[in-house]
Amino acid sequence: MKHFTIALVPGDGIGPEVIAEGVKVLKTIEELDSELSFSFTEFPWGCEYYLNQGKMMDDDGINQLRHFDAIYLGAVGYPGVPDHISLRDLLLRIRKSFDQYVNLRPVLLLHPSFTPLKDKAEKDIDMLVIRENSEGEYAGTGDWLYKGKPEEVVLQTGVFSRKGTERIIRYAYEEARRLNKTLTSISKGNALNYSMVFWDEVFEEVGKEYPDVTTYSYLVDAASLYFVSDPERFEVVVTSNLFGDIVTDIGAGITGGLGLATGANINPEKDYPSMFEPVHGSAPDIAGKGVANPIAAIWSVSQMLDFFGEETWGKVVLDTIKGLTVETENLTPDLGGKATTNEVGDRFAEKLKEKWVEKR
Ligand SMILES: NC(=O)c1ccc[n+]([C@@H]2O[C@H](COP(=O)([O-])OP(=O)(O)OC[C@H]3O[C@@H](n4cnc5c(N)ncnc54)[C@H](O)[C@@H]3O)[C@@H](O)[C@H]2O)c1
User: Fold this and answer.
1) Considering the domain boundaries, does residue 200 fall inside one?
2) Would you say the C-alpha torsion 63, 68, 69, 71 has a positive or negative sign?
3) Looking at ligand 1, which residue's alpha carbon is closest to its atom 17?
4) Could you tell me if 77 and 173 lie in one domain?
5) Are residues 116 and 217 in the same domain?
6) Distance, CA of 21 to CA of 341 (rounded, Å)
């Protein structure tokens, strides 16, 4: 019997609504597979906590999370708390403290009707974006000088260390080799004459150890265009923190929206827990209405299971998602359906049981 401990940080807005459905999936798996069990510990951190306690998480929050096998996070941020506080003091704090330097964001078209692009099928949009997740443009380094004065100056410094740059690029080469896919680096060396010239050099340098991997290198502006006009160019993609954040939202746009976009924050060495979360935010415009799409959060469960070494289950969950996407009546309004978040989760659990029986 394998047991995994999971820290739940449902967070704000639709976060708790979608995490509840992901937990439902894990509990269904437990029911079906006598070899697997999970325990859940929930933490109330987020914007409401901030408004009551003056902080986004407990002072020793990082220590409280340290010994879990994984963290399952909903979304953070809500009107009433400045976004830079909610994001930095909870989400980015966890990513940084646990050195979750790899952000894995699959961009995969599950059904042709989900893309606004003309004549694109599943085979045309199937990439894995590997985003640097620990430094770069989100390092939080800079200064705000002469605040409020006419000579006011702000500095936001990108931090690209050799260690940080090399390890993410090496991870991407390894993934491309393992998957037997091409690797594309997205950067901006023509304008960012220190950080991105360095990035390009490291990409080339590390590449010498991987002569079997076919590589491409694009400027981020051209890459953004190709994501829309020609997504089949991309298989495995490696890029910086900011560029990865942006191009994966384009990725979500061409594959059905934020309700279908997932991301895993990985510490590959497993020195610390990794964190699994949908890419979307707390969606205050639909929070509390019961219409949030839980599929992105459920896809995070698939990534979590892969990370636990339970790839068979990871695949069963992903295949079940694919199967569900043809049942429009059982999807949420963002995908053209009328189902509630809870109904999607219930239908998913039903289908998961069917898929498991079929597989055995
Ligand atoms: N990882 C995170 O926790 C994270 C990520 C992005 C934004 N945020 C925070 O979330 C708050 C809202 O940000 P935003 O509005 O820019 O982004 P958002 O992702 O919350 O919402 C953008 C749009 O997508 C829709 N949407 C998002 N998820 C959906 C889902 N599961 N089902 C159906 N529709 C969905 C929303 O209704 C909204 O119209 C802000 O406070 C922001 O800082 C947090």
Assistant:
1) yes
2) negative
3) 281
4) no
5) yes
6) 8
Task: Verify that 125 and 218 share a domain, yes or no.
Answer: yes
77 Cβ closer than 6 Å to some ligand 1 atom? yes
- For residue 40, the domain's CATH number is 3.40.718.10
Task: Identify the domain containing residue 223 by its residue range.
Answer: 105-257
Specify the DSSP element, H or E, that contains 140. strand 136-145
Cβ–ligand 1 contact at 19 (below 6 Å):
no
CA of 287 to the centre of ligand 1 (A): 10
234 SS3 class: coil
Output the CA 259–ligand 1 centroid distance in Å. 9
Maximum C-alpha span of the chain: 70
Q: How many angstroms is it from 278 CA to the middle of ligand 1?
A: 10
153-189: pLDDT as tens digits: 999 999 999 999 999 999 999 999 999 999 999 999 9
Q: Which residue puts its alpha carbon closest to atom 13 of ligand 1?
A: 281
Q: Are 140 and 85 in contact (CB under 8 A)?
A: no
Residue 262 lies in a domain: no
| Residues 318, 10: Cα–Cα separation, whole Å | 22
Angle in degrees, 0-180, between the axes of helices 341-359 and 15-32, rounded to the nearest 10: 20
- Do 122 and 251 belong together in one domain? yes
DSSP string spanning 9-53? EEESTTHHHHHHHHHHHHHHHHHH-TTEEEEEEE---SHHHHHHH
Q: Which tokens sit at 109?
A: 């078209």
If asked whether residues 199 and 69 sit together in one domain, one would say no
Same domain, 49 and 185: no
Best residue for ligand 1 mutational test, from 50, 85, 100, 280 (most atoms within 8 Å of Cβ): 280
pLDDT at residue number 359: 76
Closest ligand 1 atom to residue 279 Cα is 1
pLDDT at 231 over 80: yes
pLDDT in tens, 95-139: 999 999 999 999 999 999 999 999 999 999 999 999 999 999 999
My answer on whether 111 and 226 are in the same domain is yes
